[in-house]
Q: What sequence folds into this?
């Protein structure tokens, strides 16, 4: 039995621009169910990095 462990990250700009941008992120499983949500302030790459860390932690806890 194989498990498809492909989690996806969705980013949405809520408000602001540049260094004051407010981003909302979600980590989704393969069926589209939201596993974790959060927000980050700053440029898009920083918000994505925050979501990626949460995604990696979820993947590690699922593999244990």
A:
């Amino acid at each position: 039995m194989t498990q498809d462990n492909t989690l996806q990250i969705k980013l949405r700009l809520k408000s602001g621009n540049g260094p004051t941008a407010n981003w909302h992120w979600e980590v989704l499983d393969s069926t589209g169910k939201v596993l974790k949500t959060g927000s980050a302030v700053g440029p898009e790459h920083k918000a994505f990095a925050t979501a990626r860390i949460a995604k990696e932690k979820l993947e590690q806890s699922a593999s244990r």
User: Anything to note?
Assistant: The chain has a mean pLDDT of 90. The helical segments are 44-63.
